[in-house]
């Protein structure tokens, strides 16, 4: 495939190849000289129509470590504000002889639409509530570092599943690797038909924590909520918030993950987020190697 639009389209073999390549790049990143010449003469545009800290910086650093030339576009401050369309914006960027587009957009399917109209490689850096494939790949990579093979492992995804592209991409990635998945959250934040994907649903966070090897915790995405959902943030933290004490009291090892940004005091207390259970900053570190692998493998096909 010329693009990475979502995890749904990947095979287990694709995921294994990305994991293996990411490990090789992680080894490179641990050396004194972190830069490799793999993407010299490749030009990549990071095109962000939605806010981002981790994904945008991680892609830019991955591109620089691979020796690609990079340009960065943010919709705020651009001619999108004067009414320029998505396709015109991207075609103007491509006219400057750009080879690959990394795009984040608020509309589900925006990168799929682009893929039908442009020749450059496209990497989806998050499309609305749909998919965030590189986040799921770096999550899988980070879980595998802690647990090895994910087949049969018990993974809980806890929080606002309804608005989460991270949840959907993780479900596809983890199922392809043979993991068992439980989604946990209030009924209003879990889509009604999600069990058709073969996942379990729980509304009891303490029971879910007892069950799982990994708790991947998501934030409440207030910016995507059209109406005021039950529960309020205070109610959410009361019934679904996770504290360090809850994790310490489990009679087992548990891996705590979060894609960021964290709403401290809502889905996680600060002491949980910063505890020895947490691999949250390892996820961020691994994101660079995983994105290097994705960009390298796509460019290698050109
Ligand atoms: N995890 C993630 O996508 O973070 P950003 O929105 O900051 O990129």
TrEMBL record:
Single annotated GO MF: aspartate carbamoyltransferase activity
Top-level taxon: Bacteria
Any Pfam family hit: OTCace_N
Assigned keywords, A-Z: Pyrimidine biosynthesis, Transferase
Sequence positions that bind L-aspartate: 82, 165, 219
Catalytic activity of the protein: carbamoyl phosphate + L-aspartate = N-carbamoyl-L-aspartate + phosphate + H(+)
Ranges of residues in domain Aspartate/ornithine carbamoyltransferase carbamoyl-P binding: 2-145
EC number(s) stated in the UniProt entry for this protein: 2.1.3.2
Pathway assigned in UniProt: Pyrimidine metabolism; UMP biosynthesis via de novo pathway; (S)-dihydroorotate from bicarbonate: step 2/3
GO terms under biological process: 'de novo' pyrimidine nucleobase biosynthetic process; 'de novo' UMP biosynthetic process; amino acid metabolic process
Domain spans labelled Aspartate/ornithine carbamoyltransferase Asp/Orn-binding: 152-298
UniProt-annotated binding residues for carbamoyl phosphate: 54-55, 104, 132, 135, 260-261
InterPro entries: Asp/Orn_carbamoyltranf_P-bd, Asp/Orn_carbamoylTrfase, Asp/Orn_carbamoylTrfase_sf, Asp_carbamoyltransf, Asp_carbamoyltransf_Asp/Orn-bd
UniProt family annotation: Belongs to the aspartate/ornithine carbamoyltransferase superfamily. ATCase family.
Stored HAMAP family: Asp_carb_tr (MF_00001)
Record's subunit section: Heterododecamer (2C3:3R2) of six catalytic PyrB chains organized as two trimers (C3), and six regulatory PyrI chains organized as three dimers (R2).
PANTHER family on file: ASPARTATE CARBAMOYLTRANSFERASE (PTHR45753:SF6), ORNITHINE CARBAMOYLTRANSFERASE, MITOCHONDRIAL (PTHR45753)
Summary of the function given for this chain in its UniProt record: Catalyzes the condensation of carbamoyl phosphate and aspartate to form carbamoyl aspartate and inorganic phosphate, the committed step in the de novo pyrimidine nucleotide biosynthesis pathway.
UniProt-recorded name of the protein: Aspartate carbamoyltransferase
Organism per entry: Pseudarcicella hirudinis
């Amino acid at each position: 495939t010329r693009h990475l639009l979502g995890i749904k389209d990947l095979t287990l073999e694709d995921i294994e190849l990305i994991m293996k390549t990411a490990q090789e790049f992680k080894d490179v990143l641990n050396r004194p000289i972190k830069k490799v010449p793999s993407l010299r003469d490749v030009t990549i545009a990071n095109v962000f129509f939605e806010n981002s800290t981790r994904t945008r910086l991680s892609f830019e650093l991955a591109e620089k470590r691979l020796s690609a030339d990079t340009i960065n576009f943010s919709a705020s401050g651009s001619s999108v504000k004067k009414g320029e369309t998505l396709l015109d914006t991207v075609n103007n960027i491509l006219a400057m002889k750009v080879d690959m587009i990394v795009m984040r957009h608020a509309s589900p399917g925006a990168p799929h639409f682009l893929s039908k109209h442009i020749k450059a490689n496209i990497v989806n850096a998050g499309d609305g509530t749909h998919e965030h494939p590189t986040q799921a790949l770096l999550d899988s990579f980070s879980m595998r570092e802690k647990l090895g093979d994910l087949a049969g492992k018990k993974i809980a995804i806890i929080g606002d599943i309804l608005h989460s592209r991270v949840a959907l991409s993780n479900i596809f990635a983890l199922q392809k690797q043979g993991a068992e998945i439980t989604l946990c959250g209030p009924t209003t934040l879990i889509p009604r038909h999600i069990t058709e994907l073969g996942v379990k649903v729980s509304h009891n966070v303490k029971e879910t924590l007892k069950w799982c090897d990994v708790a991947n915790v998501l934030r409440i995405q207030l910016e995507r909520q059209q109406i005021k959902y039950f529960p309020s943030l205070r109610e959410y933290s009361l019934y679904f918030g996770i504290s360090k004490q809850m994790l310490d009291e489990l009679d087992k090892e548990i891996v705590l993950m979060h894609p960021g940004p964290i709403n401290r005091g809502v889905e996680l207390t600060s002491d949980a987020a910063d505890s020895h259970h947490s691999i949250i900053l390892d996820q961020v570190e691994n994101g660079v190697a995983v994105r290097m692998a994705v960009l390298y493998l796509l460019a290698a096909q050109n």
